[in-house]
Design brief:
There is one protein chain. The chain has helices at residues 2-43, 115-122, 143-160, 170-178, 203-220, 366-389, and strands spanning 60-62, 71-74, 79-81, 83-84, 90-93, 105-111, 182-184, 225-230, 236-237, 243-245, 249-254, 259-268, 274-276, 294-300, 310-323, 325-328, 335-336, 339-352. The chain is α+β, with helices and mostly antiparallel strands. The strands form 4 sheets. The protein has a 6-stranded antiparallel beta sheet with strand order 1-6-16-17-5-4, with no helix packed on it. Helix 2 (115-122) packs antiparallel against helix 3 (143-160), helix 2 crosses helix 5 and helix 3 (143-160) crosses helix 5.
Amino acid sequence: MENNKNNRNKKSSIWKILDSTGTVMWSFVIALVAVVSLIAFGFNQPSYAIPDVTSPLGDSFTAGTPQASDRIISDTGFNVTKYSTSTGDHVYCLEHNIAFGSGSVYEKKDSITDYGLLYIMANTYPNVQMKDKKKNDGSNLSEDFQVWISQTAIWVYLAETNAENNTIEPADLEKIKTASCVYTSQNSSYCDLPQNAEVKHNLYNTYIKDLVEQAKAQRTVPNKQFKANLSSTDISITNNNEYYQSDAVTVTGSPSDNFNSFKVEISSAPEGTILVDEKGAKLSSYDNLPTGTKFYVRVPVNKVTEENKKVKLSFVGSFKTYEGNYYVSTGKQTITSVKTVNNNVSTGLEFELNYTPDVPNTGMSTAQTIYFIGLIVLLSGVGIIYANAKPTNAK
C-alpha cells in the first residue's frame, strides 16, 4: 500500500514536470511563430521611397492644342486625349468630360493636399517610365499606352476616394476596368496589347489596380513623421564626477527612405552643456546628422543649480517629399502638377537633471543574518558550558 502511494506521488511529480515542460515548449513555439510573423510582415511592407520629379509648369502656362493622333482609345470605347502645354510638356486633367483650355492661359492656384493624387502623378508617365511593365509579347509599353494608363489611374483614384474633382460616371469606370487593349485614332486596326482568344489582358488588373491601391495607402499614411525620443529620464554621472549625463537620445524620420538628415540645437541648458556619442566623444557637428543617430547630453556638475536644471533641445529634420498645385483657366479643365522638394519639419525635447546618487546597500544578506544568529547561538552555548563546568564552592 505504501508502495502504491509512492508510485502515485512519483507519477504526479512526473506529470507536473511534463506539464511544466509542455508549457515552456508551447511558449517557445508561440514566441517563434510571433518572431517569424513579424519578420515576414516587415519584409512585405510597401516601400514609399519617392523618385525625383520636377515640374516645368511654373506660375502659369499656355495650353497647347491636341491633334487627332493624340486621341487614345480602348477596346471598350473609353477615350483619353494626350494633353500638353504650348511648349510640349505633358499635363494631366482632373475632371473627365470637361473641355481642355486649348490656347488658354492657366494660372497656378492652391496647393494639392491629397498626397495619394501626388503619388500617382509622380509614379506614372512622364515622371516615371513604366520600365518594369511589359506588353504580353515582352516588348516595352508605348508612350500612348502609358499615357492612357496614367490618366485613367488618376480618374479611378479620384472615383474610389470620392474626391471633390471626381466626375467619372460608373459606366465609364466600368469601361476602364474591363478594357483589354488600346490604340490610337491613326491606327484603328492596332491594339497596343495583342488581343486573341488565348491571351487577353485586363489593363486595370495588370497596370492600374496596384498603383491606385498604393496611392490610397499613401493618402492615409502621414506624409512625414519626425521624432526625438529620450530612452528614459534617468540621469547618471560620469566616472570623473564632472558631468551629469542623460540617457540616450534617438532621432528618427519616417518614411526613412525620404528622410535626408537633421540638425539639433541646445535651446536652453546650463553653461558648458555638450552632446556626445556612445563612446563619450563630443559630436563634431550638430548639423546634417543621419536618421537613427544616437547621442547623450552632458552637463557640467558645477554649472547646475535649482533654477537651471531643465535642458531643452530643438530639432529640424529635412525630408524629400511631393508638392503640387492646381492650375486653372476659367470654365476649363483643371490641370495638376507634381514635384519633389526638400522641406523641413521641427520638433523638440526637454527634460530635468534630477540626479539620484547610488546608495550602497547596508542591510544584511540572508547568509550574513544566518551566520550572525549562528554565532550568537554558538557563543551562548559556550557560555552555558563554561558556567556549568565552573567548580562550585563547598559549603
